[in-house]
Amino acid sequence: MMLRRTTESPDMPEHQAPGQGGRNLTLLLIILFVPAVVVLVAVTMVMGRAWMDGLAVRAVAVTAPQMVDTGPAVGVGPAPQTGRQADAPGSQQAATPTSPINTVTSPTAEVMRLATDFSPARPAWEGALAAGTADEGQQIVDVGGPGLVACSSCHGKAGIAPAGSPFPDLAGKQAEYIAKQLMDFRAGTRNHAIMTPIARAMKDSDVGAVAKYFGGLPLRPAPVRATGPARGEALDRIGDMALGLPACANCHGMGGAGIGPLLPSLAGEPAEYLIAQLHAFRAGSRSNDDGGVMRGFAKRLSETDIRALAEFYAATKSGQR
Ligand code: HEC
Ligand code: HEC
């Protein structure tokens, strides 16, 4: 009733705040809104906590797989310390004695990263390539090292394999590619009865040293002339649409000359070696091709095509990368 009087008096002075009507209105507001606000606060607190819990669970789920992120060097020795890993906050955490992660004794603990570190993981070969000198590499290649047979006994003096041998030339191959192959043999993504144990006997600094030495050597001197089978040349330059094969030259350069640090040269390699690699990709015993590109192509190549390609590259001595 008082309330109605308040609303019914349009000419009531504005400054009549402490009056009856004002107090009644305040009372009404309190009665209406206080319970609503209390309920709202209670619901927000309960739901808010559930939401926070959800966040916490998710954060753990993100961290867990990082701990088993191994890199290629698992089980064969400590992962290489690249400059970036040494600086990363994750490596400091792994070194904290109280950290539960530290109870993991495998080398995986060293590459532990924070869930908030979204930078791409660096490959193991980068760390290996940073170690060792070309002079140390020459020593290992010419005379070997502790537990290491001289590489030259198969790959030839100065990295050029004896004519007619099944061994690949290493002279002039990109240092990055050679370091990657040796780390891949160690990790098991590339397998070979002879090379796997040799690579596993090598320290990271040995890998870096031989990669630098071979990378700096001149390629096998040879005339620039392609005389291989025509089918091999066609696959190299054009590919085969019907078989879903792009031109090999797209990635390996014209005449198998190689491109950049990680796309290897094929020119001048022994045919037997190239055939063995295509078979290994096809069988999956070599699976170190990122994205599986080479495994895919090798599955689509017939035996005749493989031989034609191998003979084409073996006869193609471009003399340049
Ligand atoms: C007993 C013979 C032998 C010795 C000694 C040897 N290798 Fe090899 N190496 C091979 C064979 C065979 C292959 C081909 C492996 C394959 O088919 O996958 C090979 C392949 C390689 C490759 C891969 C080349 C490519 O183009 O992908 C690298 C790198 C390599 N060897 C480095 C070395 C180093 C470094 C040493 C010395 C520490 C060494 N090898 C000693 C036989 C040998
Ligand atoms: C999309 C890019 C791409 C194309 C196209 C391609 N390759 Fe490769 N190939 C690669 C990469 C990358 C590697 C090296 C993988 C590694 O890191 O070991 C490789 C490696 C190889 C090797 C091993 C070389 C060695 O020294 O051990 C052979 C042999 C080879 N390729 C043959 C071919 C042939 C033949 C074709 C055409 C039918 C072809 N590739 C097309 C990307 C390609």
Automatic annotation (TrEMBL):
The chain crosses the membrane at residues 25-48. Keywords: Electron transport, Heme, Iron, Membrane, Metal-binding, Transmembrane, Transmembrane helix, Transport. The keyword Lipoprotein does not apply. Residues 90-106 have a biased composition (Polar residues). One of its GO terms (molecular function) is electron transfer activity. Gene3D superfamilies: Cytochrome c-like domain. This is C-type cytochrome.
